[in-house]
């Protein structure tokens, strides 16, 4: 009872500054739910107040961000309105560690919220993370397939134009970033049409095949072989024929030995994984 009264005192409406257009009374009602004790939720929400975070613990916002998907799951998507403002506050936090934590879990939150809330409330945050520091972008990249598969087909296609941007990193030595991109592209082949794969994913795959780091190249050989397999099974045969002709032109006839070696390794992967019938391979 004492705790309740203390919490009520601490989280008095007059004590919480808000930029919202709602009146304090409306603001309070928008945060009310009946799943957990309201005082407990109020305490959690208050932890993202920048003034408190500075005076209490600089790590508190990171802990809040880490717990948020669990809180959202507990409250249910019908009570997302209680957490939406807090999520947006954390997503624009000055500390990259806070944003990174949210970037790593945004795909989980999308599953909890469903497609409508994801499209309205999470996609803008996701787009912001795509332009953030590499430390934040890697969180989005590691679960790119998990997030994009939850979006509507038209919305998903919009990201085809941005995949190329993942080839550019703050630090060119960050080869693990490019390796992760190759891994994700293999998964993304299932989400896009043959034309989209040929037009957008093929140039990225070829660029990764010529990477300076061998670990990136090895994953990229697998990516190209899976691409060949996917395009061969498509209804339009011209895509796979054009792709194979380009492999010959770009790598087999390359004036550098490394390019010709790449061609041999891609052929090996295509053969081992049965990506083409042998007569077509020949």
Q: What characteristics describe this protein?
A:
2 domains, mainly alpha, 282 residues, disordered N terminus, single chain, Leucine-rich Repeat Variant, 0% strand
Give a verbal description of the structure.
By secondary structure, the protein is an all-alpha fold. It has two domains: 33-151, Leucine-rich Repeat Variant (Alpha Horseshoe), CATH 1.25.10.10; 177-281. Helices cover 71% and strands 0% of the residues. The protein is built from 16 helices and no strands. The chain has helices spanning 2-10, 24-30, 38-46, 50-56, 60-75, 80-91, 96-130, 134-142, 144-148, 153-158, 175-188, 194-209, 214-232, 238-252, 257-272, 278-281. Helix 5 crosses helix 7. The longest helix has 35 residues, at 96-130. The protein is elongated. The protein starts with a helix and ends with a helix. The relative contact order is 0.06. Mean pLDDT is 87; it is low at 1-20. One of its GO terms (molecular function) is protein phosphatase regulator activity. It comes from Prunella himalayana. Residues 1-31 are annotated as: Disordered. InterPro entries: ARM-like, ARM-type_fold, PP2A_Regulatory_Subunit_A. Keywords: Repeat.
What's the SSE pattern? HHHHHHHHHHHHHHHH
> How many β-strand stretches?
0
Cα-atom radius of gyration: 24 Å
What is the name of the CATH topology of the largest domain? Leucine-rich Repeat Variant
Number of helices: 16
CATH superfamily caption of the largest domain:
Leucine-rich Repeat Variant
Mean pLDDT: 87
Low-confidence parts lasting 5 or more residues at pLDDT below 50? 1-20
Helical coverage, percent range:
over 70%
Task: Find the structural class using helix and strand composition.
Answer: mainly alpha
